[in-house]
Amino acid sequence: MTAPFSHAMVLAAGLGLRMRPITLTIPKPLVPVAGRTMLDRALDALDAAGVSQIVVNCHWLGEKIRDHLAGRPKIVLSPEEELLETGGGVTRALPHLGDAAFFVVNADILWTEGAVPALERLRAAWDDSRMDALLLLHPTATAVGHDGPGDFFLEPDGRPRRRGDAARAPYLFTGVQLLHPRLFATAPSGRFSLNVLYDRALAQGRLAAIVHDGGWFHVGTPEALPAVEAKLPA
């Protein structure tokens, strides 16, 4: 039996189209923000949380991600010849992720910690008896570099609810989460979004969420880089 929370996956296979021309030669996770790559920031947070094995998928300029990770011994690389999106990427990596709940982190976002590190808060909030997925949300109004309408409402019992037809929702999904392998028991094959599985878990009452109490930053375009760097703490 795998120890809970000892495994993680970092999603680093995106094309980074909106970040061009920077991402013509650098995969988006390796774009430096305030002197450190987004991928390294995610890996550092997982290291601090005591994760013992981390899978990193890659596709666009994947050899650069491979070379960048050469000095990190606990990394398993999951190269994708064809882009599998978030759901397909995690499904392909499941043999390396154990049989207990594991972290999944997007490699193209940044966050700063609140009073307690975000991954520790997710770990403390996890209830294996009633959850298959636990999402970290952030207030839409205070997200830096994000101008979307938000993703979720949050019920008093911690259950998220999709924005649906509402013009705006108070919370967005941060790209940081805990997932259990059983979430993937009936997953589609090939390329698909994790949203497919979130909706199934939501319908079964097994999708939960907590709200991040630190900062959250999205670097979507080259023009957003200076604005995000200006707001990141020194």
Automatic annotation (TrEMBL):
<dbReference type="InterPro" id="IPR025877">
    <property type="entry name" value="MobA-like_NTP_Trfase"/>
</dbReference>
<dbReference type="InterPro" id="IPR050065">
    <property type="entry name" value="GlmU-like"/>
</dbReference>
<protein>
    <submittedName>
        <fullName>Mannose-1-phosphate guanylyltransferase</fullName>
    </submittedName>
</protein>
<dbReference type="Pfam" id="PF12804">
    <property type="entry name" value="NTP_transf_3"/>
</dbReference>
<keyword id="KW-0460">Magnesium</keyword>
<dbReference type="InterPro" id="IPR029044">
    <property type="entry name" value="Nucleotide-diphossugar_trans"/>
</dbReference>
<feature type="domain" description="MobA-like NTP transferase">
    <location>
        <begin position="8"/>
        <end position="136"/>
    </location>
</feature>
<dbReference type="GO" id="GO:0016779">
    <property type="term" value="F:nucleotidyltransferase activity"/>
</dbReference>
<keyword id="KW-0548">Nucleotidyltransferase</keyword>
<keyword id="KW-0808">Transferase</keyword>
